[in-house]
Write a structure and sequence with these properties.
This protein is 42% helix and 23% strand. Strand 2 and strand 3 form a beta hairpin. It is globular, with a radius of gyration of 18 Å. The chain contains 9 helices and 6 strands, in the order H-H-H-H-E-H-H-E-E-H-E-E-H-E-H. The longest helix is centred in the middle third of the chain and has 21 residues. The chain has one domain.
Length: 240
């Protein structure tokens, strides 16, 4: 785990919440950490059962990534925005999900693993466990025949990557701004930084509106991980 106190302070401040649990305390007190996650979602509740169904799902994603963190994986937060196709139209969620899947599977993974044989079992075992959520930014309007028409919100992705120690150094070379532009000409901006599990709650803040979460790999590499994926997918589908 590469997260140090100063980096942790910076990453937490950038997304609008604070925590006095740092990595060593997180390892010693995961239950207390999850309680603080509940308070971050809704300061008025104490038990996860008091949260809405969608917030319980957000908490379960956070719990899953916490387990990977405690098992030695390093967590990163990746934000990707996309170029607009034209001034009077925005991409729907299904299209940007295709963009991200192509970027991630066809370009990013071969770079990270240093091979195009990413589906060999030896490579799948060390692939990042990645959860990708949709978020909104600017809403746009256009004027046609003296009437204003909403184009809806521009959409972008937040991904939390749980990275195997074998690949951390290579991913560290991509830290910062716009390093993912090399993987797709559809990318307008990107930002990658190291994070803690609670960042998942920020990344998933629009889950109530966009339930089409992307999970990578498509099949997790152990029975435990596979069960986790199925349970999360089921939880999301129940909300539809």
């Amino acid at each position: 785990m590469h997260l140090n106190k100063s980096k942790h302070d910076s990453s937490i401040a950038s997304i609008g919440f604070t925590s006095d649990i740092y990595p060593n305390d997180l390892v010693r007190s995961p239950d207390l950490y999850l309680k603080r996650c509940v308070q971050y979602i809704n300061p008025q509740v104490i038990s996860p059962r008091e949260l809405s169904k969608i917030d319980q799902v957000r908490l379960e994603y956070t719990r899953m990534l916490l387990e990977y963190y405690l098992n030695g994986r390093t967590l990163f937060h990746l934000t990707v925005t996309y170029k607009r196709p034209r001034s009077d139209w925005n991409y729907p969620s299904s299209v940007i999900n295709k963009f991200f899947t192509g970027l991630y599977v066809n370009r990013f993974l071969p770079y990270l693993l240093d091979t195009h044989h990413i589906n060999k079992q030896s490579c799948r075992d060390v692939q990042p466990i990645t959860v990708t959520f949709i978020d909104e930014h600017e809403s746009f309007y256009t004027h046609r025949e003296s009437q204003s028409h909403s184009l809806g919100a521009r959409l972008h992705h937040h991904s939390i990557l749980a990275v195997h120690n074998k690949n951390v150094d290579r991913l560290l070379s991509l830290l910062g701004e716009n390093t993912f532009q090399r993987f797709s000409n559809k990318v307008m901006t990107s930002y990658l930084n190291e994070c803690e599990p609670m960042r998942t709650l920020y990344a998933s803040k629009m889950l109530h509106r966009y339930s089409d979460v992307l999970l990578f790999p498509d099949r997790f590499v152990t029975k435990k991980e596979s069960n986790y994926q199925v349970s999360h997918t089921a939880s999301i589908s129940q909300l539809a």
